[in-house]
Amino acid sequence: MQPRRGIKHALSKKTVSYMSEIILGIESSCDDTSAAVIRDGYLLSNVLASQEVHRAYGGVIPELASRAHQLNIVPVVSEAITRAGISPSEIDAIAFTRGPGLLGSLLVGTSFAKGLSLALDKPLVEVNHLQGHILANFIRQYDKDNLQPEFPYLCLLVSGGNSQIVRVDSPLEYEILGQTIDDAVGEAFDKCSKMMGLGYPGGPIVDRLAREGDPLKFRFSKPHVPGLDYSFSGVKTSLLYFVRDRMAEDPDFMEKNKADICAGFQKTLIDILMDKLIKAARQTGIRQITIGGGVSANSGLRARIEEEGRKRGWTTFLPEFKFTTDNAAMIAIAGWFHYRNGKRTGLEVAPVSRLAEF
User: Fold this and answer.
1) Per-residue pLDDT tens over the stretch 81-126
2) Residues facing 23 on adjacent strands
3) pTM of the model as a whole
4) Residue 323, CB-side half-sphere exposure with 13 Å CA sphere
5) Domains in the chain: ranges and CATH
6) Cα–Cα dist 325/268, whole Å
7) Among residues 30, 215, 317, 348, which is most buried (max CB within 10 A)?
């Protein structure tokens, strides 16, 4: 269940006095096992173990993912602590992804976080996976400029499971202004790749081919959805019928034109995303714009955000590529904000595949 639009989800703004706070973050929402350590907002380590087994199936197999998490989580967390140059006793809190995501995968991360909490006698802090993506631009790194958005800002949150425009009033206050009414944009990229037999994961493959093609050669239909909501199912259908009809005339059509097809399809998706984001910025008067989620790594979308920013006087923030995909650094930074504001999670907490609020 998605948060209702127009409803703000806020936590207490009570702050907690602290000296130096070290947060261990654990992320296991899908097929990447990751652990990270943050001290006072600065990243000390970020370790990730990916699961290549899913490529053969053209998508993530939940049972295989949860088994791989069980194998990876101990060495990944141990490596993160080692690279951070700290001892486990120095950790102040353990932040973990409670959801949304694959229930079996989340169960592994949640259970490990609970066990470590008991063993070290350290508090738990649950984090919404989407909130981690929204706050990824606040991860500070040594020897970097560490430019951060000012509040309020708009975040275009785009991934394989979500497409939302979120107004962010503070690290703990959010309002969803618009969201997809059917498929997520990341799913549309993956379906395009699967339909064309290009491989998995589809987003990076379509993006690479799109850079080689002409985005104006082929055009695909755009939905007319009122307000700030999105729809991507019709674009997928348009692509399906287009390829089917052209291949009926020429069986080699797709192979000869795959770069142009990807370029046109990607341009259509980006146009849909940007039309709504521009509308949201105009309605709210907010000029601080960020993007987050796996699709925020798309080169076409990143270039378009920067182009529109220059044209419209926005201040834009693009997360580093390593923080666009699922990673524990974003969970740790979100957990750090929660911890500073007094949030703690009991051992009775259970993972959930869908969260009703941030």
Assistant:
1) 999 999 999 999 999 999 999 999 999 999 999 999 999 999 999 9
2) 38, 93
3) 0.91
4) 27
5) 9-146+326-340 (3.30.420.40), 153-322 (3.30.420.40)
6) 22
7) 30
